[in-house]
Amino acid sequence: MSEISTIYKLSIVAFALFCSASGSVCPVLECWFVQEKPGHGGGFSAPLSQEKSLLFITTEAFSEDIISKLQPPADISPSRIYYVTDAAGSFCSAALNPPKGSVNKPKCEVNPFMPHASMVRWASALTDSAQSPVYLQADWFSVAAQGLDRQLTLSNIMRAPSASKEPRVLLSVSSQTPAVRSRLGEPVLLDCGFWVDPSSPLHGSGFSIEWRYQFRGEGRLVLAHDGKNDRFAETSETGADLDVPGLYETGNASLVLEEAQVRHSGTYICSVYLPHLLAQVAVELEIVEPPSLAVYPSPLPLLVPGQVLPVQCEASGFAPHSLELSWEFRAADGTSRSLGQGSVTGHRQASDGTFSQSSRLELDSGKLGLGRGGDVVCVSKHEGETRRAAAALSVIGVSAPSIEDSMAMVAVALVLYGMIKFLSWTFSSSDSSDADLKDKKEK
Ligand SMILES: *[C@@H]1O[C@H](CO)[C@@H](O)[C@H](O)[C@H]1NC(C)=O
Asked: Band of the pLDDT at 433, cuts 50, 70, 90?
């Protein structure tokens, strides 16, 4: 909304004053009002219309006096201005209240909502009385909002007496953790909570909770709880749980995965069913495990100039699969330089879903200018984290041997001489003892 009229600003200021007077700071939410274009009969491919919409929000009911003071901005149709009562203050989170003048805005979409009885097994008990309450005859909306910096995602169901512009939030489902990252093997908490307006007839008439998993078009039921009969639905999922007393006491529907595995990466949808109503939020879980690095052969053998030494870096146990491997050489004086990427193999996937990959490098002391040695370092870049594994490399007999090299060579020569002497002595003595044995046997 580029052009903000003065009247709009004034009305926002008036609203802010009103809010601070009533003790709660709730945002004026700019939302897209999205609905099927009239006259297309519905269905999946029905074209959608999108209009600007504005929600004034308060935790206590709006008075006519206040509404008359709030002047709607010129670029929004008066029919798309709503005065929302949100007793739980779910819309009043800081995540939906960007600091003044910030470029990023929370995302918000309003859709008309059609109350309907749910067919899923764990929610069908909610509507088994078969009567469709008069109460449902009203204007219903669902609002989906995403806070800044992925701090909050929420989905509210609102009811307005027919043709009024003053809806009231009846059901609010939200998550404070719309995007979760976890290492392998750790317990994971996927937050989801719900609230039902205590003043509504739906309060106390039962609820059901469902967690579904979705990844690349594939879906499965993780867990479902029929709150009316206090019963879990049978699922094949193990190691997933929720705190049942917390569900009834505080509406805490958070899902706990005992031990994060690679196969858990994906989208989790937390759905809350009330009789004829449904609201859901999605939580993304990403399992991120950095690679373990090892350089082979270990330890590296001495490198003689002119000789080519193949070295290999093995990165294993990582997820997700995108990884960058490279090599560095750290000279004795502490300076580092790149030795390139080497030849990188394809990925292999282990039975636990983690990946491994390796890179091979031909170490040629002459060509690479390794001097007298240093550290050969394998570098991995994975999900913004850099890891290194170093292996010490000694190059011997470089053109101008240093005193240490000469001494080392003299020492090696002495040792070799000693060994030859020792071996020839042991062989000759064992020969003679064999001969002795033969002599004895013959006797
Ligand atoms: C919800 O329950 C989980 C355990 O199931 C707990 O770890 C979490 O702190 C609870 N959240 C709130 C907001 O109380």
From this structure: very low
Ligand 1, residue 243: give the atom nearest the CA: 5
Q: What is the pTM of this model?
A: 0.79
Closest ligand 1 atom, residue 189 Cα = 7
d(CA 86, CA 26): 9
Q: Rounded mean pLDDT of 58-87?
A: 86
Query: pLDDT > 70: what percent of the chain?
Result: 84
- Tell me the CATH class for 292-394: mainly beta
For residue 199, give both structure tokens: 């003043």
In Å, how far are 161, 183, 230, 252 from 180, measured between CA atoms?
38, 10, 29, 17
Digit-coded pLDDT (tens) for 41-56: 555 667 889 999 999 9
Q: Give the residue from 84, 281, 299, 111 showing the smallest Cα distance to 179.
A: 281
What does the alpha-carbon distance between residue 307 and residue 290 come to, in Å, rounded to a whole number? Answer: 34
DSSP state of 100: T
Does the beta carbon of 189 lie inside 6 Å of ligand 1?
A: yes
Instruction: Output the pLDDT for position 421.
Output: 76
- The preferred substitution site among 243, 244, 249 for testing ligand 1, maximizing ligand atoms within 8 Å of CB, is 243
Helix (H) or strand (E) holding 331: strand 324-331
Q: How much is the mean pLDDT over the chain?
A: 84
CA dist 6 to 12, 13, 406, Å? 10, 10, 86
Which of 138, 202, 148 has the alpha carbon at shortest distance from 172?
Answer: 202
What integer pLDDT is reported at residue 24 of this predicted model?
53
Q: Whose CA is nearest to atom 4 of ligand 1?
A: 243
Question: Ligand 1 pocket check: which of 174, 175, 188, 189 to mutate, most ligand atoms within 8 Å of Cβ?
Answer: 189
Instruction: Report the alpha-carbon distance of residue 356 to residue 89 in Å, rounded.
Output: 48
With a 6 Å cutoff on the Cβ, whether 71 touches ligand 1 is no
User: Is the pLDDT higher at 197 or at 128?
Assistant: 197
Is residue 22 over pLDDT 60? no
Ligand 1 lined by 271 (C-beta under 6 Å)? no
> In which residue ranges of the chain is CATH 2.60.40.10 found?
2-287, 292-394
pLDDT in tens, 217-258: 888 999 999 988 889 998 888 899 999 999 999 999 999 999
Distance CA 373, CA 357 (A): 26
CATH class in words for 2-287: mainly beta
